[in-house]
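Our consortium's second objective concerns turning raw sequence data into structural hypotheses that experimental partners can test. To show how far this objective has progressed, the report includes one record in full. It was chosen at random from the queue rather than selected for favorable results. The single chain below, 242 residues long, was entered without modification.
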Amino acid sequence: MGRNQDALALLNDAHALFKRLDARSELVYVDGQMAELEATYLAVVSEWGHSIESNDTYTFGHCERVAQRAIAVAQLLGFDEHAQTTVRIGAYLHDVGKVRVPPEILSKPGKLTPHEFAVLQMHPVWGIELLAAIEFPWDIKPIIRWHHERHDGSGYPDRLRGDEIPLSAQIVGIADVYDALTTTRPYRPALSRERALTEMERCRGWWSEPVCTAFRKSLVDPRGAEMPVPPKQHIRVTVSLD
């Protein structure tokens, strides 16, 4: 956890530096270096997301699948490239706060007690605390804190309602629910796509109408069929995290 935080802090500093260099027209290679830097950034964040899941066979790959589905929805809603990157990174790290949730709660096969559920509901807040010292080039913290908020005001942790919830958080939230329903969990087997959509239709008030419509379209739209992760690229930077 500490090494991931240090790596992201250094990448943030590098990103800010390249942004400043970009204003100097004589530096013709800055755009290419920025692209490589952002690809490296995505690789670090993706691996951090995978490391969060590494001890849980039930959720391994969850962040990657949520990111792919969320990007498909964001594209259909007309998000530009910067906003799509925000959604992708927010999706990779949306569950980072679960590292503070006891494993016996995360992997409990039966129904959670009210106390256990209250602990689980703290993970968006804990995620923000863990990332508090990192200033990201993308506005991902609203996604991490509010991906469990619901349009009808029944979500957590802040009971936001309607347009108080950023679209980016709603997008990651709806992708998160779909993946949870369609994968095996300790407390139930995976649902089919049709059964999952039926369950989500019953909870349609959790998300705005545009988000619901774009999400359903993403399941059949060819743009949402495959969202490959950017390949890892290397920049000539030597970093020591010891």
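The partners drew two points from this record. Residues 30-53 form the longest helix (24 residues). The CA atoms of residues 117 and 124 lie 13 Å apart. Both points have been shared with the crystallography group to help prioritize constructs.
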